[in-house]
Amino acid sequence: MKISRSINSVLLGYLVFALSAVLLYQLSGIDPHSDPTTGFLVFSISYGLLFSFVGGLLTQLLSKTTKLIVNYELALILAGFAVISYIMTSGNHYSQIASIFLFAPCTLVGGWCYLKWTQRGNTIYHIVTLNDLKSSTKDNYYRPGNFEEDGFIHCTRKKSITLLVLEDYFVEISKRNVLLMLEIATAKLKAEVKYEPPAPIQGAGKNHLKDGLFFPHIYGGLNIDAIIGVGVVERVGDNFVWPSSFKNINKYF
């Protein structure tokens, strides 16, 4: 499954770049091997940098990995096809040269930016009721009731998004349960964390989706020693408030 996903992500990343190039020359009516004007040369290189960056970003996003391996593969494919085209065609080779020395490296930049954007910060949060925390923790690992169905543990990163998640999912639950916010150190997790588009529950609120492009998902059990603090979530009036303090997890067992 992972290998297939990686292959598909690389192919899609390449298609984004290749199709954008075909579209550019089809719409402009310019032969890609003719001598370009200075204006078109600058535009086409800028255009190529944009779509190679997007291709690299999409490759990393769809592969759901935390390393740049898929982007190196994409860069090699892009540069490889450019070398073949350089050898087999005549005329001006500015597009092939740009592909080798500019566009291929730019796919790495796209993947790197995606990883930096989604992995900045080392603390994430998970909301759970006190009863569920106790009943779903075994052998020092916590797995929520929906873990088998979803395949991961839903988490958030920003304070503002976390409060919106509370409003969208936990208003009714908070009326009859003690809500806890788990503060998790990603560096201590034994399972992999992937930053992915949201996976909302059907029928739930959507306020948290407006500002949250990517959410951290823990693909495995949450080892208790990665929980560096537990805060009690309270609702004051019509709003949830951020916990005033985070206490040691041992207090709840």
Give structural attributes.
four-stranded antiparallel beta sheet, ADP-ribosylation fold, three-stranded antiparallel beta sheet, single chain, 18% strand, 253 residues, alpha+beta, 2 domains, 8 helices, 49% helix
Task: Describe the overall structure.
The two termini are 38 Å apart. The model has no long low-confidence stretch (mean pLDDT 92). Strand 9 and strand 10 (239-241) form a beta hairpin. The chain is elongated and about 75 Å long. It has helices spanning 2-28, 38-63, 69-88, 94-119, 130-135, 147-150, 159-169, 171-174; strands spanning 123-129, 137-138, 141-142, 153-154, 179-185, 192-196, 215-219, 222-223, 227-236, 239-241. The strands form three sheets. It has a four-stranded antiparallel sheet with strand order 1-5-9-10. With 253 residues, it is α+β, with helices and mostly antiparallel strands. The protein has two domains: 2-118, no CATH class; 123-252, Protein of unknown function DUF952 (ADP-ribosylation fold, Alpha-Beta Barrel), CATH 3.20.170.
Ordered list of secondary-structure elements with their pairings:
Blueprint: H1 2-28, H2 38-63, H3 69-88, H4 94-119, E1 123-129, H5 130-135, E2 137-138, E3 141-142, H6 147-150, E4 153-154, H7 159-169, H8 171-174, E5 179-185, E6 192-196, E7 215-219, E8 222-223, E9 227-236, E10 239-241
Antiparallel strand pairs: 1-5, 2-3, 3-8, 4-7, 5-9, 6-7, 9-10
Helix pairs in contact: 1-2, 1-3, 2-3, 2-4, 3-4
* Structural shape: elongated
Helix content: 40-55%
In percent terms, what proportion of residues is strand?
A: 15-25%
Q: Termini distance?
A: 38 Å
The named CATH superfamily of the largest domain: Protein of unknown function DUF952
